[in-house]
UniProtKB/TrEMBL annotation:
Keywords: ATP-binding, Kinase, Nucleotide-binding, Serine/threonine-protein kinase, Transferase. ATP binds at K91. Signal peptide: none annotated. It comes from the Eukaryota. This is non-specific serine/threonine protein kinase. SUPFAM superfamilies: Protein kinase-like (PK-like). It is an enzyme of class 2 (transferase). The keyword ATP-binding applies. Its EC number is 2.7.11.1. It catalyses: L-threonyl-[protein] + ATP = O-phospho-L-threonyl-[protein] + ADP + H(+); L-seryl-[protein] + ATP = O-phospho-L-seryl-[protein] + ADP + H(+). Residues 22-39 have a biased composition (Acidic residues).
Length: 159
């Protein structure tokens, strides 16, 4: 399984700032709903999803706050980076070998993009610098079924 971490913004891209007086519905829209369709519980098995619970701590620094979503490849969790003191999105990828290989390819690609983007980041006026998700961290863990699980972290720049 893999994990994706993105910095959480105080507001969604392209939206105007909101105040404490805004209605709760707007915040629910931003955060999503826990009532949304859920992944198949039978996919929590060897080669499948890794069981993540609210309050879990990964790699000694990422504290799980809530699930943001899921897909065929992974689940995504809002987490608090204790060391970096920021919200991140953590992507937990399924542990089957073909998912692991695909995730490792994605990590290599994102590391390559991050290196090239580093030059652009030196120019704060470059409009493209905040359009690319950047890899922050990647690591592996073992799940309850003994399958090795790779966790990785990303960072989404402000736009």
């Amino acid at each position: 399984m893999f994990v994706l971490f993105l910095r959480s913004e105080t507001q969604p891209r392209g939206s105007a700032p909101h105040s404490e007086s805004d209605p709760p519905e707007q915040e629910e829209e931003i955060l999503g709903s826990d009532d949304d369709e859920q992944e198949d519980p039978n996919d929590y098995c060897k080669g499948g999803y890794h069981l993540v619970k609210i309050g879990d701590l990964f790699n000694g620094r990422y504290h799980v706050i809530r699930k943001l979503g899921w897909g065929h490849f992974s689940t995504v969790w809002l987490s608090w980076d204790i060391q970096g003191k920021k919200f991140v999105a953590m992507k937990v990828v399924k542990s089957a070998e073909h998912y692991t290989e695909t995730a490792l390819d994605e990590i290599r690609l994102l590391k390559s993009v991050s290196i090239r983007l580093y030059v652009r980041n030196s120019d704060p006026d470059d409009p493209n610098r905040e359009m690319v998700v950047q890899l922050l961290d990647d690591f592996k863990i073992s799940g309850v079924n003994g399958t090795r699980i790779l966790f990785r972290t990303y960072f989404e720049n402000k736009s």
